[in-house]
Predict the structure.
Amino acid sequence: MTAERRKQIINILGKSVKPVKGGDLASLLKTSRQAIVQDIAILRAQGEDIIATPQGYYSSKLPNNIGETRVFACQHDHEGMKNELEIMVYYGGKVQDVIVEHPYYGELKGNLMLQTMEDINNFIENINQSGAEPLSILTKGVHLHTVLAPSKVVLDKIEQELRKAGILL
């Protein structure tokens, strides 16, 4: 039964054009969210490319991951986070992740997958409500973002606006 459920998870994620929350998978497959978390861990260990984001799980094989990517090195305080993300999304980017270089652990990466202003607002609200700090707190605000965009022109515009805002390193 668990092997069949895992096949169903792969099928659902493979067909979905947006991330699917663990609770939604649990409801669809009539199991607990904890069972889904365990299934996802096992599937990832077996080589399935499943990404966990604040919006839910998705397969990295999604067709909407087509375009150009660029990594932006940024620095700002906590208040600058929303402005930075809004610039990236407003001009057509999808903020895939945030990366910091920790002196002991090396590279730490958080998958974000922020594509709309609503995604950003939810992300900021969740951080504020949880009392959690962004990863960049570990590096005095220095961090990287991988941004996916439809073209190099869009990425150039994002870079220009981040530079104007004093966010780009």
Notes: The longest helix spans residues 2-15.
